[in-house]
Design brief:
Length: about 130
């Protein structure tokens, strides 16, 4: 199944010089007909966070805390699972073959017609 993703981010919140919080909302939806089974596993998705800086090559790995929460869901049936699970943030290599690593958020979702999710990623440099 192919998710479509729309992302709306808020400006980064600098709590201290070493701690930045990235927040926003994600709209996941399935275009066309949704065919779903009760036993279907959650499906992986991910995106690079906008308004972030790359991790310098000589920098130590920062501490990352990530979370997502379900804001709204338009489910096909009340008997089918829907929601979010397995949220993780990491600095990953640039997919365009660049030299830097960028902040990427991944999760797994049980599809519904549409899910609106809130996310928060806290980055603390040592």
């Amino acid at each position: 199944m192919v998710f479509r993703l729309e992302l709306q981010s808020a400006p980064p919140l600098h709590l201290t010089p070493n701690c930045v919080v990235h927040t926003g909302t994600v709209r996941l939806f399935v275009p066309g007909t949704l065919i779903q089974t009760v036993t279907a596993p959650a499906e992986q998705f991910g995106f690079f966070l906008p308004n972030t800086r790359p991790l310098p090559e000589d920098a130590r790995e920062p501490y990352l805390w990530s979370e997502m929460h379900l804001m709204t869901a338009d489910a096909a049936s009340a008997n089918m699972p829907f929601g979010i699970t397995h949220t993780q943030a990491a600095y990953v290599p640039d997919p365009r073959a660049g030299l830097h690593r960028w902040l990427h958020l991944t999760a797994a979702a049980h599809p519904a017609r549409e899910l609106r999710l809130g996310y928060r990623v806290t980055v603390q440099t040592p």
